[in-house]
């Protein structure tokens, strides 16, 4: 048999599977040894010798772990364990233009679930000063938002303040993940300018209800407010545009 014939029968070795195994082994080791943020891990050469793989494989594995936010480089210490910032990892992959319509719709549903669910935290934790600052933002707004498409910067500013009022930093981080999707919906034409013939709760009305400190009322008002966006979604995918999860 000729060498050329053998060449056609060969396949490239899947090195990524080796990196996957090294990655899983390292994560398992970190967990088993109960390493904490700031603890150093062995250097590249040591890991390569211990695990019996090349430094290239180790280097690629460590790059993955840094991207995941599991380790970071420290001067004079090499790589150390880091508390994973999983929201920042999600944010890097949230590229609205590359998401299909079903995923975009899912992102809007997530926003609905989260912002309606924040009602108890907002009502409980918002100070009187927080509410007054929020009111100063909306005092000139019309009472109803029928057929009103709010400026995206204004919308982000208002809802960003609500996230801040929860006092939950993870919720605020999650809002940063959803912002690109929300902005994309406004600029790409996914959200129509007009809506069904009905009235929605405006930002100004939300603040007035928040002043009453009634979580159930605020939760219901937030749902009706967000329908101003959901009922405008113009998707041609598998999910109906007006499905806001209501029973």
Describe the structure.
α2 packs across α4 (55-67) and α8 (128-138) runs antiparallel to α9. With 247 residues, the chain is mostly helical. The chain contains 12 helices and 2 strands. The protein has helices at 3-9, 15-32, 44-51, 55-67, 86-93, 101-117, 119-125, 128-138, 152-165, 169-188, 203-210, 215-230, and strands at 71-74, 78-81.
Outline the fold blueprint:
Layout: H1 3-9, H2 15-32, H3 44-51, H4 55-67, E1 71-74, E2 78-81, H5 86-93, H6 101-117, H7 119-125, H8 128-138, H9 152-165, H10 169-188, H11 203-210, H12 215-230
What's a quick, concise take on this entry?
The chain contains twelve helices and two strands.
Strand order in the sheet with the most strands: 1-2
Give the low-confidence spans: 237-247
Provide mean pLDDT, rounded.
80
- Main beta sheet strand tally, sense and closure: 2 strands, antiparallel
> Total strand count, please?
2
Name the CATH superfamily classification of the largest domain. Answer: GntR ligand-binding domain-like
> How would you spell out the order of helices and strands?
HHHHEEHHHHHHHH
- Rg on CA atoms, Å: 25 Å
* Shape category: elongated
Fraction in beta strands:
under 5%
Distance between the termini: 70 Å
Please write the CATH class name of the largest domain. Answer: Mainly Alpha
Task: Please estimate the helix content.
Answer: 55-70%
Q: Name the structural class.
A: mainly alpha
CATH topology of the largest domain: Four Helix Bundle (Hemerythrin (Met), subunit A)
- Count of DSSP-assigned helices: 12
């Amino acid at each position: 048999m000729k060498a050329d014939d053998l060449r056609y029968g060969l396949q490239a070795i899947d090195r990524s599977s080796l990196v996957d195994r090294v990655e899983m082994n390292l994560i398992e080791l970190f967990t088993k040894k109960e390493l904490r943020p700031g603890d150093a891990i062995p250097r590249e050469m040591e890991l390569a010798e211990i695990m019996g793989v090349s430094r290239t494989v180790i280097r690629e594995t460590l790059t993955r772990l840094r991207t995941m936010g599991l380790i970071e480089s420290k001067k004079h210490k090499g790589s150390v364990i880091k508390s994973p910032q999983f929201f920042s990892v999600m944010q890097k992959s949230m590229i609205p233009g590359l998401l299909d319509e079903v995923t975009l719709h899912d992102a809007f549903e997530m926003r609905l679930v989260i912002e309606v669910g924040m009602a108890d935290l907002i009502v409980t934790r918002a100070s009187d000063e927080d509410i007054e600052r929020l009111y100063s933002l909306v005092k000139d707004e019309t009472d109803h938002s029928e057929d009103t498409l709010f400026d995206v910067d204004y919308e982000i500013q208002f809802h960003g303040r609500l996230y801040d009022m929860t006092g939950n930093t993870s919720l605020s981080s999650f809002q940063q993940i959803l912002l690109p999707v929300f902005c994309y919906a406004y600029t790409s034409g996914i959200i129509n300018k007009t809506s069904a013939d009905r009235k929605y709760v405006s930002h100004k009305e939300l603040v007035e209800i928040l002043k009453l400190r009634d979580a159930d009322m605020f939760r219901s008002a937030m749902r009706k407010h967000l329908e101003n966006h959901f009922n405008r979604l113009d998707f041609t995918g598998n999910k109906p545009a007006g499905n806001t999860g209501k029973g």
